[in-house]
Specification:
Layout (H helix, E strand, L loop, with lengths): L5 E3 L8 H11 L7 E3 L2 E4 L2 E2 H8 L3 E5 H14 L3 E6 L6 H9 L3 E4 L2 H9 L7 E3 L6 H10 L2 E4 L4 H8 L3 E5 L25 H11 L4 E6 L10 H21 L5 E3 L17 H15 L5 E4 L3 H4 L3 E13 L2 E6 L8 H5 L6 E2 L9 E6 L8 E8 L7 E4 L20 E6 L2 E6 L4 H5 L6
Parallel strand pairs: 5-20, 6-7, 6-13, 7-8, 8-9, 9-10, 10-11, 11-12, 12-13, 15-17
Antiparallel strand pairs: 1-2, 2-3, 3-4, 5-14, 14-15, 14-19, 16-19, 17-18, 20-21
Helix pairs in contact: 3-10, 8-9, 9-10
The structure holds pyridoxal-5'-phosphate.
Pyridoxal-5'-phosphate binds next to helix 11.
Length: about 450
């Protein structure tokens, strides 16, 4: 193939320097197997156009190698711990099955997430059930599944005991404000999650009579781009553990430090490595506590976020008041993060990935709101109808938060590896949406 150009991040040849420089910056945001071959984006050894042809668009493509790389990194950094996948990032049976096979557990927070984990064959002893308002049904289901629950309210130990729960952790709210969007801060002093130190202490005193209280939990927020506040939370957790030991003679066997590690959605964002984040937190706790403990970690976004790329088909393009609009066949129904958290993304034209940018475009969805903008200011070669738009870092909290706004069915997802694609979430149909309507 004399004219073929191939750019890889993982050590492959970079043949055309100018384009490669532009690409390598963006490709950093893509999964490990992302490459540009003959001008086209390839994921897991499959051309984006082939994936779009075979599965339609919008399509979320997950790279198996990237997911497994993150799993192994967590296991390497915290060998004395259990990694629980934060199921909320994308409740999906195939991914949960993959994680179960790698020895991971699952953090679930609803009946639905518990069913997904159980359907994937996740062993009971590796399921932790969260929630700031667990229903009696949820407590009974957790008991039946023999999962560990995380106490999150003063009356929950009693209710859990009545429901048959036998094992619990307690969620401490350390009063730390995470540096992230306020909607995903979870451990500040007015948080709806967990118990402040005084309430947690009182709850431990009473709960020990009712359940096997195995340990403590903290989770200060999500998309944490630095470790400072998490380290401060670990310091407060240490103070708390000393206090409970001194006042009640209770020692945690398990210390669950939650999830929260950020990923980069755009080139100007930073994210610590697993070692610089999880390794630092565990190291801090170890340095201040000499009793034996086993660590739990609950990463969601950092396990699957960068592994996911969403493929969209470009439709109408137009100029409006000096803005170059590019519309695509999805939007806030398949990824509401720009509207919810002001998330900023970048994109490639997957079928023209080696062309230089020629302009700045506002990438808008198809929904009936002007705020349905996925990227404002994408630098791209001028997109044309039927081009394929590839948006990286869309594996977490996208499909999981998808809606059917405007009667749009939710997209499909595939897992790719070594040139093969496995459908892991079928595309919803309009008939399925109509089936909820009793009059049809
Ligand atoms: C208790 C708990 N654990 C783990 C997670 C996963 O967080 P992330 O996806 O940011 O790693 C969350 C999400 O906010 C959470 O609430």
């Amino acid at each position: 193939m004399p004219n073929s150009c191939r750019f890889r991040l993982d050590g492959g040849a970079i043949l055309r320097t100018r384009t490669a420089v532009t690409l390598s910056g963006v490709l950093d945001l893509f999964p490990d197997t992302a490459a540009v071959e003959d001008g086209e984006l390839v994921l897991g050894g499959i051309a984006a156009s082939t994936l779009a042809r075979d599965f339609g668009t919008p399509l979320v493509v997950y790279c198996r190698r990237t997911i497994l790389g993150q799993v192994r990194e967590y296991q390497r950094v915290v060998p004395e711990g259990l990694v629980l996948y934060g199921t909320k990032a994308f409740p999906n049976v195939a991914l949960l099955r993959l994680f179960a096979g790698e020895g991971l557990g699952a953090d679930v927070s609803t009946l639905g997430e518990l069913r997904f984990a159980r359907s994937a064959g996740m062993p009971a002893e590796r399921i932790v059930f969260h929630g700031n308002n667990k229903s009696d049904d949820e407590l009974r289901a957790a008991a039946e599944a023999e999962a560990t629950i995380v106490l999150d309210a003063p009356d929950e130990a009693e209710r859990a005991h009545a429901a048959g729960v036998t094992r619990a952790l307690i969620r401490l709210t350390p009063g730390v404000e995470a540096h992230t969007h306020q909607s995903i801060q979870t451990a500040h002093s007015e948080s709806k999650f967990g118990l402040d130190p005084d309430q947690a202490l009182a709850t431990i005193r009473d709960a020990r009579e009712l359940v096997d209280l195995a340990g403590v939990h903290v989770h200060i927020g999500s998309q944490l781009a630095r470790a400072d506040e998490s380290i401060a939370a670990v310091d407060r957790l240490l103070e708390f553990c000393e206090r409970v030991r001194d006042e009640h003679g209770w020692l945690p066997r398990i210390v669950d430090i939650g999830g929260g590690l950020a990923i980069r959605h755009s080139r100007d964002e930073n994210a610590p490595s697993v070692a610089a984040f999880a390794g630092a937190l565990v190291g801090r706790f170890r340095a201040g506590w000499t009793e034996p403990v086993w660590f739990y970690l609950e990463p969601g976004r950092s396990l699957i976020g960068r592994a996911g790329v969403t493929l969209y088909r470009v439709g109408a393009t137009k100029r409006s008041g000096g803005v170059e609009y590019v519309a695509f066949d999805g939007g806030m129904s398949d990824n509401p993060r720009p509207q919810l958290y002001g998330a900023r993304y970048e994109a490639l034209l997957a079928n023209r990935a080696d062309e230089p940018a020629t302009g700045v475009f506002r990438i808008a969805g198809k929904h009936c709101e002007s705020g349905d903008v996925l990227i404002d200011g994408a630098r791209l070669p001028a997109p044309r109808r039927d081009d394929l738009l590839a948006v990286p870092a869309t594996g977490a909290y996208t499909l999981a938060m998808a809606s059917t706004y405007n009667g749009v069915p939710r997209p499909a997802a595939v897992l790719v590896a070594d040139g093969a694609a496995q459908l892991i979430r079928r595309r919803e149909t309009i008939d399925e949406l109509l089936s909820f309507e009793p009059d049809v």
